[in-house]
């Protein structure tokens, strides 16, 4: 097999991994960078591949929720209060990451080159998830589908602007590789008083403008210097991420409606230990 063929095969594998991990709180970026290092996949110093293919996963969510997006668009255009509030909350949650991301993108990208950071973020993130799930004001049983009496938002329309702002700042924390954007925003939403399944859905919707902005920005900054091989690799990874995300999204929503995030927390801690051992012995 030629060197180019190996490159495209690796891009395909990474795209599939991206789609499977984007919407569960285990950090798709950590998986892409760690696996990419293990299989010797070189996407370039700018890491455009790892950023852009994530939007393939987001497109899958947009397709799955196309009916809700159409409802939102019609509601905003017709001035429906609930839809206007939902759109406002998405904008509020999006702004912190947009501002901080634009100001600190160089520093954030530099962290991609330090695998040791993943150990800390994976383990600490897992411990935080375990702590949040142990707090008594969340659902007491794994199969609860309704939040406890202290949670105030049981649907997307009930989320307040203050809760949306908390989710927005939680998304800023997720800029550190290994944190997990979905994990940070979901846990942030739960801490703000949003029921688990609703927090997950809000995280999905917030991913749409966030990853679109990141994709457009990265192509604007680095698109001109990408080689034909890198561009085709991005296309392959993008399509693979879209297909695998189509499979995963509904399964994630069904899972979180009946279970806690503890399994993902223990997975993060275990993966962090594996990465630490790999860094030590390599």
Topology:
Layout: H1 3-21, H2 28-38, H3 48-52, H4 54-64, H5 66-78, H6 81-111, H7 115-134, H8 161-173, H9 181-192, H10 196-222, H11 228-256, H12 262-281
Helix pairs in contact: 1-2, 1-11, 4-10, 4-11, 5-6, 6-8, 6-10, 7-12, 8-9, 9-10
Distance between the termini: 27 Å
Major sheet summary line: none
Strand content: under 5%
Low-confidence stretches: 139-150
Output the helix-strand order. Answer: HHHHHHHHHHHH
Principal-axes geometry comes out as globular
What is the count of DSSP helices, taking H or I runs of 4+ residues?
A: 12
Q: What's the domain count?
A: 1
What is the helix fraction of residues, given as a range? over 70%
Main traits of this protein?
mainly alpha, 282 residues, globular, single chain
Describe the structure.
By secondary structure, the chain is mostly helical. It has one domain (60-226, 250-281). It has helices at residues 3-21, 28-38, 48-52, 54-64, 66-78, 81-111, 115-134, 161-173, 181-192, 196-222, 228-256, 262-281. Helix 4 (54-64) crosses helix 11, helix 6 packs parallel to helix 8 (161-173) and helix 6 packs across helix 10 (196-222). The model is unreliable at 139-150 (pLDDT under 50). GO terms for molecular function: undecaprenyl-diphosphatase activity. Belongs to the UppP family. It is a multi-pass membrane protein.
Summarize the structure.
The chain crosses the membrane at residues 12-36, 48-65, 86-108, 114-132, 202-220, 232-253, 265-281. The protein is mostly helical and 282 residues long.
């Amino acid at each position: 097999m030629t060197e180019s063929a190996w490159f495209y095969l690796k891009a395909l594998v990474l795209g599939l991994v991206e789609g499977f991990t984007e919407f569960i709180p285990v950090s798709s970026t950590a998986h892409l960078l760690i696996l990419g290092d293990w299989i010797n996949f070189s996407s370039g110093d700018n890491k455009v591949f790892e950023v852009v293919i994530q939007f393939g996963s987001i497109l899958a969510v947009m397709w799955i929720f196309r009916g809700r997006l159409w409802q939102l668009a019609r509601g905003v255009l017709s001035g429906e209060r609930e839809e206007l509030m939902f759109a406002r909350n998405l904008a509020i949650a999006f702004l912190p990451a947009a501002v901080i991301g634009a100001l600190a993108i160089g520093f954030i990208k530099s962290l991609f080159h330090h695998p040791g950071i993943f150990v800390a973020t994976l383990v600490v993130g897992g411990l935080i998830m375990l702590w949040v799930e142990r707090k008594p004001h969340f659902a007491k049983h794994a199969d609860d589908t309704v939040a406890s009496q202290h949670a105030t938002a049981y649907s997307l329309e009930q989320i307040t602007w203050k809760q949306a702002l908390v989710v927005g700042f939680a998304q800023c924390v997720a800029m550190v590789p290994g944190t997990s954007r979905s994990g940070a925003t979901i846990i942030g939403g739960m801490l703000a008083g949003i029921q688990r399944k609703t927090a997950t859905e809000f995280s999905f919707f917030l991913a749409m403008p966030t990853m679109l902005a990141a994709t457009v920005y990265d192509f604007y900054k680095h698109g001109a210097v990408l080689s034909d091989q890198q561009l085709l690799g991005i296309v392959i990874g993008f399509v693979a991420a879209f297909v695998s995300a189509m499979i995963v999204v509904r399964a994630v929503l069904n899972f979180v409606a009946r279970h806690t995030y503890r399994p993902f927390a223990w997975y993060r801690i275990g993966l962090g230990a594996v990465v630490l051992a790999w860094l030590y012995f390599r």
